[in-house]
Amino acid sequence: MPSFDIVSEIDMHEVTNAVDQAKRDLGNRWDFKNVDANIELDDKGITISAEQEFQLEQLRDMLRMAFEKRKIDSRAIAEDGDSKAGKLVKQHLTLVQGIETDQARKIVKMIKDAKLKVQASIQGDKVRITGKKRDDLQTVIAMLREADLDLPLQFNNFRD
Predict the structure, then answer these.
(1) What is the pLDDT, as a whole number, of residue 82?
(2) What is the CATH number for 149?
(3) For 21-58, how does the pLDDT look when each residue is reduced to its tens digit (9 = 90+)?
(4) Which of 23, 53, 96, 107 is deepest in the core (most CB within 10 A)?
């Protein structure tokens, strides 16, 4: 029986490249000359810091544009709260990977409500879809692409 997996993954190599590109853009921008602003990538996420709130917003936009150039979905970034440390305003951006259980249940419910002849099962941080016909699986993929979910989805591990 044909099957595929619905996952939410990020290529960390591309994230590193996007952060490096955003740092280069930061160095080239004239409105950030002589401004203490920085973008840092660590294993927990991305930390951006600037002197003022609007500069922090500009850094977020630069980072999102770099992500779009690298074809990384910007919904993979979850914003944590701002924190003021001395003269700097910092914000930690978390990289979202995997499908949480609540989101997985929502996806399974959407598929079951569509009354397609497929089975959906949650397997850890991914959802496996199996069905007798390849067309039904393609219908599920099209339906999920049109759905307004708050996380980037990829479809992989297709077996025939």
Answers:
(1) 77
(2) 3.30.70.860
(3) 999 999 898 988 888 899 999 888 999 999 888 898 99
(4) 107
Which among 95, 112, 146 is the end of a domain?
95
**Torsion of Cα atoms, 78 then 40 then 97 then 89, to 10°:** -20
pLDDT at 18: 93
Residue 128 pLDDT greater than 90, yes or no? yes
Strand extents, DSSP E, 24-125: 38-41, 45-50, 77-85, 88-95, 118-123
- What's the CATH code of the domain at 27? 3.30.70.990
- Residue 48: give the domain boundaries: 12-95
Compute the distance between CA of residue 79 and CA of residue 56 in angstroms, rounded to an integer. 12
Burial, 129: exposed, middle or buried (Cβ in 10 Å; 0-12, 13-18, 19+)?
buried
C-alpha span between 5 and 127 (Å, rounded) = 6
Q: Answer yes or no: do 155 and 81 share one domain.
A: no
Same domain for 51 and 106, yes or no, is: no
- 149 versus 63: the higher-pLDDT residue is 63
